[in-house]
Amino acid sequence: MYQETLVILKPDALERNLVGAIIDRFEKVGLTIVDIHYYRRVNDAILKKHYPDTMAEGLGKKAQLATSGINDPKAHGMKVLERLRKYFTRNPIIAIRFGGEDAIKTVRKVTGYTDPATSEKGTIRGDFGADSIAKSTVEGRACENLIHASGNSEEAKSELALWFPK
Ligand code: ADP
Ligand code: MG
């Protein structure tokens, strides 16, 4: 089924000159750029909607999978949310609306798992990711993994409306 989904090239993708290489991966699996927007600076209001506080527990649980010593996943997740806002606003990002057959699942598959330390080889995060959740936790940062990709059809719908307002 034809679908559209959101990809965001995070600051590290632009800083490391990986924009072309990353877009190439998506185009090679048949996805097409339907719309694209360069954000010189993202504001806090959009990020609060993109990464709402309700995500905290899930983020904390991902940290528990990757590292030891986290007793309260929700409290830890709230810290990660703050760190994510810092990460996303430090330099420009690029939002892309990709369209194609089963675009949502295809994009996630090409993107790879959240933590580059364990994301599969052959995926963008697995091949280009240079950070890990464990390292970023020790250093008090968000884990840098180059791209955001909508996780399911609900996320795709709300995130596309947020980043590509009519
Ligand atoms: P994904 O981007 O794979 O959908 P999530 O939606 O769970 O992953 O998390 C959003 C982003 O937050 C991740 O891409 C990553 O940059 C960062 N992140 C997630 N979990 C952690 C964590 N435990 N510690 C640091 N950063 C994290
Ligand atoms: Mg997600």
Helix percent band = 40-55%
Largest sheet features = 4 strands, antiparallel
Mean pLDDT: 97
CATH architecture: 2-Layer Sandwich
Count of individual domains: 1
Q: Shape from CA axes?
A: globular
Name of the CATH class: Alpha Beta
As residue ranges, the low-confidence spans are: none
Quote the beta fraction.
15-25%
What is this structure, in a nutshell?
It is built from nine helices and four strands; from the N terminus they run βααβαααβαααβα.
Describe this structure in words.
The protein is an alpha+beta fold and 166 residues long. The protein has a single domain (2-163), classed as Nucleoside diphosphate kinase-like domain (Alpha-Beta Plaits, 2-Layer Sandwich). It contains 9 helices and 4 strands; from the N terminus they run βααβαααβαααβα. A 4-stranded antiparallel β-sheet has the order 2-3-1-4, with helices on both faces. The mean pLDDT is 97. The structure holds adenosine-5'-diphosphate (ADP) and magnesium ion. Residues 58-59, 62-63, 80, 84, 114, 133, 136-137, 142-143, 145, 148, 151 line the site of adenosine-5'-diphosphate.
Name its key features.
166 residues, binds adenosine-5'-diphosphate, globular, alpha+beta, Alpha-Beta Plaits
